[in-house]
Design a protein that fits this description.
single chain; 438 residues; alpha+beta; D-Maltodextrin-Binding Protein, domain 2; 2 domains; five-stranded mixed sheet; three-stranded antiparallel sheet
C-alpha cells in the first residue's frame, strides 16, 4: 500500500464534498390566526417536524384582521409569501373559483375525506372541488354563568330571545364588582363585529341585500338591530367593548367578568378548561338568540388550511396540511391536551365518539348549532346571496370592513345610529353599483 497517496486522496475527496450543494430543507411558510387552537397546532407541529425532518415550518401568527389583510393581498398579487394559508368558507370558494388555490384532490384513503361534514366540505368548495381542508369548524352559541343565573333565580331557555337576553344582562350587570351583564364583539372588522351583528340582524328580519342586490341598511330591520346592539352593549357590556373581538371576550369570560357571551362554538373547550378558565365548572350552553325569527340565528364557519398556487413548496405544504387536519392530529391533541380539546365541528367521527361527547359538555350544542345553520336560507325575506354571517360575493370583504367601522363608531358614540346606517347604505350602494350588480 502506497501511503504517500493517502493524504492527497483525502484532500481531493474533501474538496469534492465541499463543492457539492448542501441538501436544503423545504421551507413551508404558514400564515395563521392567533386563536388558541392554531397556537396549539404550532406547538404540536414539533411532532410533525420530527417525522418530517426535510420540512422546515415557518410560522406567521397574526391577529385576525391583520391576517386576513395580509393573505388577501398576497393571494391577489401572487406574492408567494405563504405556502399554507388559514382561510374560511368565505375565501375558499371565491379564491378557488378564481384559480388562486390548489385543489385538495387525490387525498389518501386514510385521510377519510367523507368523514368531514357535508356542509363543511360544501362551504370550502367551488363547483364541486374542495380547495381547503378544515382545521376546525364552528357555529355560534350562547355561553352563560350557571352560578350567577341560579343565584338570581333566572333560567336560560334552550334558545333565548334577544329581549330575554337584555333582561338577563340588566339583572346580572354589576360593574362595581367587575361583573358585566354581557360580552359581545365590538372590534371593527368584517369577520369580527360584523360576524356577530350580521347574525344578530338575521334574527331581527334584516338582510344585507334584497333580491335585486340593493342594500337595506335604510330599512327598519337594520335600524332595530343596530339600536338594540348599541344599547345592550353600552348599558350592560364591559368598558372598551369596541376593542373586543373573539380573543378579548374569551379572556374576559374566562376571568369571570361576563355573565353571558354569544360567540363561536369553538370557545367551548376553552371556557371549560380548568387550566385557563376560572369558571370552567360554572358554564352553561344555549343556542344563539333569536328575535322575530330563528332563521340565520347561528353562523357557519370553518378555519381551514389552503395552499396558494403561488407556493413553490406545494408537496411539502400538502404533507403538512393533511397532517394538521387528520384524525391522527386529533388523536395527538387528545393525548397531549385531553380529548375535549380536539379540533371541533369538522368530522362526524368526533361526535360519534362517546368518550368525546362525555368529556365535552358543549359538544351537543355545537353539533345542534351547526346542524341548524343553513347558509342557503339564512334570512326571513328571500336574499340573493349564500352565507349566514357574510354574503359570499367578492365585494363583501371590502364593503363589510367599512360597514364594521361605522357600527363601531355608533357603539363608541362617534356617530349616531342613523348616521352609521346612512353611511353603510351609501358605501354599499356605491360599491355594488361599481361592481355592476345593478
Amino acid at each position: 500500500m502506497n501511503t504517500n497517496n493517502i493524504l492527497p486522496a483525502i484532500l481531493s475527496s474533501t474538496l469534492i464534498i465541499a463543492s457539492l450543494p448542501a441538501l436544503a430543507d423545504t421551507k413551508v411558510t404558514i400564515g395563521t390566526v392567533n386563536n388558541g387552537d392554531m397556537i396549539r397546532m404550532q406547538e404540536l407541529s414539533r411532532q410533525f417536524e420530527k417525522t418530517h425532518p426535510e420540512i422546515d415550518l415557518e410560522w406567521v401568527v397574526l391577529e385576525e384582521n391583520v391576517l386576513r389583510q395580509r393573505l388577501t393581498t398576497d393571494i391577489a398579487t401572487k406574492g408567494g409569501q405563504f405556502d399554507v394559508m388559514t382561510i374560511g368558507m368565505y375565501e375558499a370558494p371565491i379564491w378557488g373559483d378564481r384559480g388562486w388555490l390548489t385543489a385538495m384532490d387525490n387525498l389518501p384513503a386514510s385521510y377519510d375525506v367523507d368523514d368531514i361534514f357535508p356542509s363543511v366540505r360544501h362551504g370550502l368548495s367551488a363547483k364541486g372541488t374542495l380547495y381547503a381542508l378544515p382545521f376546525y369548524s364552528e357555529s355560534s352559541m350562547t355561553y352563560y354563568r350557571t352560578d350567577l343565573f341560579k343565584a338570581a333565580g333566572l333560567s336560560m331557555p334552550e334558545r333565548p330571545t334577544w329581549d330575554q337576553v337584555r333582561e338577563f344582562a340588566k339583572t346580572l350587570h354589576k360593574p362595581e364588582q367587575e361583573q358585566y351583564g354581557i360580552c359581545l364583539r365590538g372590534k371593527a372588522g368584517w369577520g369580527e363585529n360584523m360576524a356577530l351583528v350580521t347574525t344578530m340582524s338575521n334574527t331581527f328580519g334584516a338582510r344585507w341585500f334584497n333580491e335585486k342586490w340593493h342594500p337595506e341598511f335604510d330599512g327598519p330591520e337594520w335600524h332595530n338591530t343596530l339600536s338594540f346592539y348599541v344599547d345592550l352593549v353600552r348599558k350592560y357590556g364591559p368598558p372598551g367593548a369596541s376593542s373586543n373581538g373573539f380573543n378579548e371576550n374569551l379572556a374576559l369570560f374566562n376571568s369571570g367578568k361576563c355573565a353571558m357571551w354569544m360567540d363561536a362554538t369553538v370557545a367551548g373547550s376553552f371556557v371549560t378548561d380548568k387550566s385557563q378558565s376560572h369558571v370552567a365548572d360554572k358554564v352553561g350552553f344555549a343556542l344563539f338568540p333569536k328575535q322575530v325569527t330563528d332563521k340565520g340565528a347561528g353562523w357557519l364557519w370553518s378555519w381551514a388550511l389552503a395552499i396558494p398556487v403561488s407556493s413553490d413548496a406545494k408537496d411539502a405544504a400538502m404533507t403538512f396540511v393533511t397532517w394538521a387536519t387528520s384524525k391522527e392530529y386529533s388523536d395527538l391533541v387528545a393525548k397531549e391536551y385531553g380529548i375535549a380539546n380536539v379540533p371541533p365541528g369538522s368530522r362526524a367521527s368526533t361526535y360519534a365518539n362517546q368518550e368525546y361527547m362525555k368529556a365535552a359538555p358543549f359538544a351537543e350544542k355545537t353539533l345542534q348549532s351547526m346542524d341548524n345553520a343553513n347558509p342557503q336560507d339564512s334570512t326571513l325575506k328571500p336574499s340573493p346571496y349564500v352565507g349566514v354571517q357574510f354574503a359570499a360575493i367578492p365585494e363583501f370583504q371590502s364593503i363589510a370592513t367599512q360597514v364594521g367601522k361605522f357600527v363601531s363608531g355608533a357603539l363608541t358614540g362617534q356617530m349616531s345610529i342613523d348616521q352609521a346606517l346612512k353611511n353603510a347604505q351609501a358605501v354599499t350602494e356605491r360599491e355594488m353599483k361599481r361592481a355592476r350588480y345593478f
